[in-house]
Specification:
It is a single chain. With 98 residues, the protein is of the alpha+beta class. The chain is built from one helix and six strands; from the N terminus they run αββββββ. It has a three-stranded antiparallel β-sheet, with no helix packed on it. β4 and β5 form a beta hairpin. The chain is elongated. The model has no long low-confidence stretch (mean pLDDT 95).
Length: 98
């Protein structure tokens, strides 16, 4: 996603747009700029499959909240539909997927 460039007769507006685009476009290109927060997923002691609902291949994930002492890891390759997590304890997590 990039900021659009709107043609203008004003040199000031054109220069501002160019500057804003040079600053913001690299930030908008980061995978985390299109992230989604998934809350209150209950993981079992074992494997849990989560539908990440991104509609594209997931690039990564970050746990944002967990309510128990647990080691959690991904056991399957990233794909366009699901995230497969393995936990060594039953817990409830929230995660950011991108």
């Amino acid at each position: 996603m990039e900021l659009p460039y709107i043609q203008s007769d004003s040199l000031t507006i054109s220069l501002l747009q160019t500057r804003w685009r040079s600053i913001l476009n690299p930030l908008l290109a980061l995978p985390t700029s299109n992230a989604s927060l998934l809350t209150d997923f209950e993981l079992i002691n074992g494997t849990t499959i989560i539908n990440h609902k991104l509609g594209r291949k997931m690039q990564g994930w970050v746990i944002t909240d967990v309510n128990a002492a647990a080691t959690i890891y991904r056991s399957m390759p990233l794909n366009d539909k699901t995230l497969t997590l393995v936990s060594d304890a039953a817990c409830t997590i929230s995660l950011m997927v991108f």
